[in-house]
Amino acid sequence: MQQNKITQAIRIQTERTPEMEHSTPMFLTSSFCFNDAESMRAAFADETDDNIYSRFSNPNVQELIDKVCVLEGAEAGYATASGMSAVFGSFMALLKQGDHLLACNSIFGSTHTVITKYLNRYGIAYSYISATATEQEWAAAIQPNTKMIYVETPTNPGLDILDLKMLGKLAKQNGIILNVDNCFATPLVQQPILLGADLVIHSATKWMDGQGRVLGGVIVGRKDLIKEIYAFCRSTGPALSPFNAWVLSKSLETLEVRMERHCSNAIYLANALQHNNKIAFLKYPFLPTHPQYAIAQQQMQNGGGIICFELKGGLESGRNFLNALQMLSLTANLGDSRSIASHPASTTHAKLTEAERLAVGITPGLIRISVGLEHKDDILKDIEQALQQC
Ligand SMILES: *Cc1c(COP(=O)(O)O)cnc(C)c1O
């Protein structure tokens, strides 16, 4: 009987040990034993998929991968120590000297650093394109040596939406790998592979953990590509710790109910705040006023757990807003059970010039709220009182 993927994300489990435990135990072991020389030889020759060493594979890690594969509709996957090692692994395993990477410029800050500062050391060229580029502009940006397209949608922190179906079609027509960081949406909100992506990356640190405890990353997608990524990672060592995998796998059992609440709280706040007199504009993918509302409706099942708004008072108001908050946390994470506020212009993106910030959609008074699981009226009250002070 084919089960719903939500059921599978709850029920997929490492084979029960002779102890007959109900919950998956932690396999905190660096290596695995063999009964004889022949079974060890066969494992090393890839004739069996027995575990050998936890840098290669581990039951807790595999359980997490299997769940993410089901949720994303992917053939295979590999889990890494952080979201960034997933991003880096996907680049280094699949790009080589002379290749070109075409990336959207509204991407996670460290990903931007990897592309601009490090890829060229290995002879990999790149170019950036705006999150609001049209299909014609994307097509024109593809070069004969373009090997991979890399995007995030919704973008961070500006919440622009990129048309994944259009990018999937373009990538397929040109024989290019479409690599999508799906961290912001989670597989409960959007499944890029079903829209044409070849690879999907997650920082499991965010919504997947959902409680701000551990770092982790996952790459899932086409079997032939994952094989290359596995070979690269198995030798270079960004493996996910079994402890973190255990935490993350448990978290996936509640991802659907958590995302439902994150999203319903987020749209409640978006509606309640959009006409606030201190706010110039508010963006949420499922508000009809969002510039790419139509695409969001097509490719997302709901609007996600992040809202952002621009304060009329600009940079100084942004700082005042953070200082006036009483409950919301000021912290660099997102996707937590506790609501978090951030002001990119004075923190994560302070090193950029104002022109550089504007190019990636970061206006001076932009506030990003990662909407938590607290009662919606408590979150709203805190934001409203802080707005009145800036
Ligand atoms: C946090 C984040 C990453 C990096 O993940 P880490 O787990 O912090 O290494 C990559 N992409 C996006 C969109 C993120 O939010």
Q: How does this model look, in words?
A:
The chain has 14 helices and twelve strands. It is globular, with a radius of gyration of 21 Å. The protein is of the alpha/beta class and 390 residues long. It has two domains: 5-252, Aspartate Aminotransferase, domain 2 (3-Layer(aba) Sandwich), CATH 3.40.640; 255-387, Alpha-Beta Complex (Aspartate Aminotransferase, domain 1). The strands form two sheets. It has a seven-stranded mixed β-sheet with strand order 1-7-6-5-4-2-3, with helices on both faces. Helix 1 (5-11) runs antiparallel to helix 3 and helix 12 packs across helix 14. The site of pyridoxal-5'-phosphate has 15 residues, from helix 4. Pyridoxal-5'-phosphate binds at residues 82-84, 108, 111, 152, 156, 181, 183-184, 203, 205-206, 215, 217.
Measured distance between first and last alpha carbons: 57 Å
Any idea what the radius of gyration is? 21 Å
Mean pLDDT: 96
What is the strand tally?
Answer: 12
Concise account of the structure shown:
This is O-succinylhomoserine sulfhydrylase. It contains 14 helices and twelve strands.
Fold blueprint:
Layout (H helix, E strand, L loop, with lengths): L4 H7 L25 H8 L14 H14 L3 E5 L2 H12 L5 E5 L4 H10 L6 E5 L5 H7 L4 E7 L11 H11 L2 E5 L17 E5 L13 E5 L1 H14 L5 H11 L2 H19 L5 E5 L9 H7 L6 E6 L2 H11 L4 E2 L9 E3 L11 H6 L6 E5 L5 H13 L2
Pyridoxal-5'-phosphate binds next to helix 4.
